[in-house]
């Protein structure tokens, strides 16, 4: 019998238990998948802690993975047994050796990209594509602010925005991450614990501000990110690593005619056509060397608790993956 990580009650990482689970045959329109690698995301830590109460307990967390198809349900015509596929799925269940999954969310992975890289970059890369192409279409010479510039999504944002010709300002929380952020394409890097990032952004941009700020930190940086925006600038808040953003007056956006979004990659890529187009762009970016996944910390599936501690560590850099 295959095993999985089961969360019986919300709380600390120790609540992630490695247990045998039953996996049935795929129903019509489904596939059975043998995982080779699973991505670990901040979303998973929010689910585990209880901040997000979106997983019915007991349940298997995890929203992305890569693996080999071992069985097809009826009516699945576009995939084959033995195909290597990646997916992101709001139905959870990724922290497992094997699982059943809707075939429509599976995307074939081209040869030449390692499973660990796919698991490290798939959801983050698709999120990045959405942020720089749909939430705000980054243009040459735009000023772009990226918080957590050495992190998983942050590093990809810096690379993709820089590739599109933007001038990227990155913030990091530690001195040793500054060179990493520059390597990922930042023209300016701010160590926000040493200096006020709002003041520095205004200095760097000649008091113009940035056309877009990408903020996954949340509570600690949100109001500062708003203050950094240029007239008609946009703030994309797509995470809350420091905690939820407190309520604020929407009229605060009026003075500079700013806009705000809280984007969901699942909504932006809700059709198979858009999902496959974004995935193709992501895989092309990897193959062309536009995107580099950076450091990948790997753990065994049974060590998911330690993987969560690593992800939540302030000293962490890059992505975290469970290798099956």
Automatic annotation (TrEMBL):
Keyword NADP among UniProt keywords: yes
Gene Ontology CC annotation, any one: cytosol
GO MF, one example: NADPH binding
Every Enoyl reductase (ER) domain range: 11-322
InterPro entries: ADH-like_C, ADH-like_N, ER, GroES-like_sf, NAD(P)-bd_dom_sf, QOR-like
CDD domains named among the record's database cross-references: QOR2
Family annotation (Pfam families): ADH_N, ADH_zinc_N
NAD is among the record's keywords: no
SMART domains named among the record's database cross-references: PKS_ER
UniProt keyword list: NADP, Oxidoreductase
Signal peptide start-end: none
Official protein name in the record: NADPH2:quinone reductase
Species in which this protein is naturally found: Paralcaligenes ureilyticus
Taxon lineage: Bacteria, Pseudomonadati, Pseudomonadota, Betaproteobacteria, Burkholderiales
